Amino acid sequence: MTSNYFEILRGGINTTFQDKGRENLYHIGIPFSGVMDNRNFLLANKLVGNHLTAPVIEFAYQGPHLKYTGDQLNFVITGDVIFKIKKKDYEIDGDCYHSYHLENGDEINIISTNKSVYGYFAIGSEIDLKFQWNSCSINTKANIGSNNGKKLDSGQKINLLKINSDKTLKKVNYINSKIENIRVIKGTNFDYFSDEGKKIFFEKEFIVSKLSDRMGMRLEGPKIENIVNTNIKSEGLVKGVIQVPADGNPIIMLSDHGTVGGYPKIGVVVSVDYDRLVQLAPGSKVKFQEIELSDAETLFKLYEMETKNLLNQI
Amino acid sequence: MLKNISNLGDAALYCDFGIQVNKATNLEVIKYFNTIREKKIKGINNLTPSYNKLIISFDLRVTNFSEIKNKIENLDTTIEQSKNNKKIEVPVCCEENFALDKSRLEKKLNLSYQEILTKFFDKEYFCYMTGFIAGMPFLGDIDENLRTQRLETPRVKVPQGSVGITEQFANIYTFDSPGGWNIIGNTPLKVFDDSKERDPNLINPGDTVIFKKISRQEYESSNDK
User: Fold this and answer.
1) How far is CA A230 from CA A77, A225, A239, B150, in A?
2) Does A260 contact B134 at a Cβ distance shorter than 8 Å?
3) Are A26 and B153 within 8 A, CB to CB?
4) pTM beyond cutoff 0.80
5) N or C: which terminal CB in chain B sees fewer CB atoms within 10 Å?
6) Residue A297 with chain B: CB contacts under 8 Å
7) Topology of the domain covering A181-312
8) Residue B128 pLDDT more than 70?
9) What is the per-residue pLDDT for B121?
10) Which of B49, B6, B10 is nearest to B30 (CA)?
11) Mutation for A interface: B6, B67, B133, B173, most A CBs within 10 A
12) Regarding beta strands A241-243 and A265-269, do their DSSP bridges make them parallel or antiparallel, or are they unpaired?
């Protein structure tokens, strides 16, 4: 018997349940999935007293409009998000990274992300979700995960199981930094491209196309010329790989990416830059910058320490 | 043989077994894949075997490139492997609306569609790998006269069930998906079933696939549709 639930009044553009994703399934064609922006995911869970990798609601651009029925609970929104909380007699503009109480009848209207793509809505409660391969993450391309692998839509309900007993309100000061230079390690087919093409890749600006989603980010700009072969034998891909198909426009693999691909790999975005890469909205200008493996490893360690410090402040 | 190990970004190893695409090389890749899976090496969180490459993903919070590379270089792969391969028949309808690249293929291959289909259905195919999207099998080798490149710009959406060809390979799109292969028809068969968590793929590496041409009527009345 569930007496605590959210009613979805508007689903938003691409609203899904996500957690840390699934491992060890690339070989059958299933990618990691999971949250796009890991730091904002961890912060959201910590701010409502969940364990750090509990399921959250991820939204892109316009988020959901929800109405709550049930006992008091805490929620928080992370990212750079404009949202409103509607109480019985008044409405307030919500602040990200501040947890709030939610009472019976209250509404949350997530209007949009601000010059970014993804935001996170964490609920201080266990949510009633289906897990597949140990993850609730919705992969809408393969229809895997909770909600039958489909994005959340108006008219649906989100049922809650057990509300967290600690309802202390928490906050943290955090501002999402923007990224303009995406750091990359040269890819395994770097030498497939002409000297001019390589120069373009590292020196010219590219624009994020609106054909970007959880699978990949398409970029537009000067064409990168291939002088060897515009096809390779299909082989494994990982998150962050930059493929260049015959049309010369790079595509960066993101969390729901295809597990193998046959276009040459010019580079791979380093792990430290993923969280900020995925937040680049269509129309954003980006440049690629080469770094060495050892530097990428060090920078990732520093980023992880910074995330830990933020979590420790909560 | 494993020829070279390099890094693919900062959280994956790129194991190169050469440029040849054949059963012997592929079986060598699969041998490494099975051995590494069994060893359960700390930090490895994904393995992607393909025709002649194996990509090993790891958690950069737990380990790093040089640690994993060292472990793979010292791996004992001499253990015997058990095989359990199947033969699977896949019905395909190649009529209008399903054969999306009919005219492109006729032009590129300089053959009539009838000739293309005869050559396509006349062979048995070996499954080298699965992936790209959940359960998609990569099959080979198609007739030498049917070989052509991918589309110059991949489609944003290839319909579920589409059967595609490129170079010496054929595949089946298990879901609506972006993709650049030349589409010759569509199968009503369910090639991926996520309700079977332990074994969701109908076709696995090492299996044999036979395609069977069906009419639109047979397609429409198929149980899986």
Assistant:
1) 43, 9, 21, 9
2) no
3) no
4) yes
5) N
6) 10, 60, 64-65
7) Cyclophilin (2.40.100)
8) yes
9) 97
10) B49
11) B133
12) antiparallel
Whether pLDDT at B136 is above 70: yes
Neighbour tally for A180: CB within 10 Å: 12
Selected from 3.40.50.10710, 3.30.200.20, 1.10.150.130, 2.40.100.10, the CATH number assigned to the domain covering B87-220 reads 2.40.100.10
Question: Is residue B155 within a helix (H) or strand (E), and if so which, with residue range?
Answer: strand B155-158
pLDDT for the residue numbered B81 = 65
Task: State the residue for tokens 């949350």.
Answer: A108
Please name the residues between 32 and 91 in chain B that touch chain A, using a CB distance below 8 Å.
33, 37, 45-55, 57, 60-61, 64-65
Is pLDDT at A23 greater than 90 in this prediction? yes
Q: Which residues of A touch B134 (CB under 8 A)?
A: 28-30, 142, 144
Taking CB atoms and an 8 Å cutoff, what residues of chain A touch B8? 187-188, 238, 241, 265, 268
Write the DSSP symbol of residue A155. Answer: T
Q: Does A292 touch chain B (CB under 8 A)?
A: no
Q: Is the pLDDT of residue B225 over 60?
A: no
ipTM for the predicted complex comes to 0.95
pLDDT greater than 70 at residue B82: no
pLDDT band, residue A208 (cuts 50/70/90) = very high
Summarised one tens digit per residue, pLDDT across range A70-116 is 999 999 999 999 999 999 999 999 999 999 999 999 999 999 999 99
The pLDDT of residue A1 is above 80: no
Beta-ladder partners of B139: B127, B170
Q: How far apart are CA B174 and CA B133, in angstroms?
A: 7
Cβ distance B131 to A142 less than 8 Å, yes or no, reads no
What tens digit of pLDDT does each residue of A163-186 get? 999 999 999 999 999 898 999 999
Instruction: Kindly list the residues from chain A whose CB atom is less than 8 angstroms away from the CB atom of residue B127.
Output: none
**Region B4-73: CATH code:** 3.30.1360.40
Give me the torsion for CA of A64, A65, A69, A70, rounded to 10°. 50
CB A75 within 8 A of CB A64: no
Torsion sign, CA atoms B107, B108, B111, B112: negative
